[in-house]
Amino acid sequence: MNILTGLLKETINLLNAMSPFLLFGFFMAGLLKVFLKEDLVTRHLGTHDFSSIIKASLFGIPLPLCSCGVIPTALGLRKQGASKAAIFSFMISTPTTGVDSILATYALLGGFYAGFRVLATIIVAIIVGLFALLIKDTREKEQDNTKPSDACQDNCHSESSACCHVHEHYGLGSKLWLAFRYGFYDLIKDSGRSILLGIFIGGAIAYFLPSSFVEHYMSNIWLSMLVMMVMGIPMYVCSTGSIAIVAALMMKGLNPGAGFIFLITGPATNAVSFAVIGREFGVRSLILFLASLSLGSLAMGWFFNWAWSYWNINFSVLMQHHHMLGLPVWINYASSVVLVWCIIFGWKK
């Protein structure tokens, strides 16, 4: 009984810390989905050069897509003429961050970590895109302006769907409702179970894993970064659910660079994305994609550890100060109830 109580306590603590920021992030994601025109993205990603890489890396940061959800979007961009380099950068920056995950990172790991996560993700996405330039993109652009992509069309069978921008004639109130519905139903339905699983794993790590384990087996910085990279690349873990896992491991002594590597490789890749990249762009491009992602994430992980040490940041002290400035307890609990209810509601549907 004591074990169950302790596990439940740690899990609830993580849930309470993340929930208010997640709810706000989901709503902001809904606003982006409704008000950001899709052709604004495709219009700037068609050239196989450095400018398209920069644009793709920046466009992907706020978008609320996971590593599976980004695949049909990337294929749609490819069909509309986006370059391979731009798509590779987009496939890194988009699933690795998002408004909800950025705010959740701030909630659990602090502002320094959240800011670095955004900046480093952009840099890694640019690195992957630059490597893609090494293999010439010979495919001609295919323009398809007659109708939305199939993936989008499949989800636009009802007027309540916020998938496509077919509601531009709607008023502000209707658009806000679509944003609310997308953020608190569609998006939570897709990622809610992964988020809860990540929070539960984080709670289990916080309760069961002794600090001596990290000290004994993960004390070597390079070894720990390699281990987290090897764990993250084949896994499917959403950018938000992975935060609780990293926060729990860092409380046990894991270095921040290794945690960052897991936060970028876990959400950015999985077995499905490997198959799609290999089929659409070839095995050479897939190998280049994985090699550049690995090198970029290791480089930024090393730099993060250096910066963390240079500014002499103490994670425990940082978290204590961060939580002292946090929200009232009742808001945290109320947000947790609302978030769990939304996940259960979407699950039943």
SS summary, helix count: 17
What would the average pLDDT be, to the nearest integer? 82
- Contiguous low-pLDDT stretches (5 residues minimum) are 140-166
Q: Approximately what portion of the residues adopt beta-strand conformation?
A: under 5%
Portion in helices: over 70%
**How many structurally independent domains?**
1
Distance between the termini: 33 Å
Radius of gyration: 20 Å
Helix/strand-derived category reads mainly alpha
Tally of extended strands? 0
Shape: globular
Biggest beta sheet attributes = none
What order do the SSEs take from the amino end to the carboxyl end, as H and E?
HHHHHHHHHHHHHHHHH
Task: Name the descriptors.
single chain; 349 residues; mainly alpha; 17 helices; globular
In terms of topology, how is this protein built?
Blueprint: H1 2-35, H2 38-42, H3 50-60, H4 70-79, H5 84-96, H6 99-109, H7 111-132, H8 150-154, H9 172-208, H10 211-217, H11 221-232, H12 241-251, H13 256-268, H14 271-281, H15 283-310, H16 315-324, H17 329-348
Helix pairs in contact: 1-6, 1-9, 1-17, 3-5, 3-7, 4-5, 5-7, 5-13, 6-7, 6-12, 7-15, 9-12, 9-17, 11-13, 11-15, 12-13, 13-15, 14-15
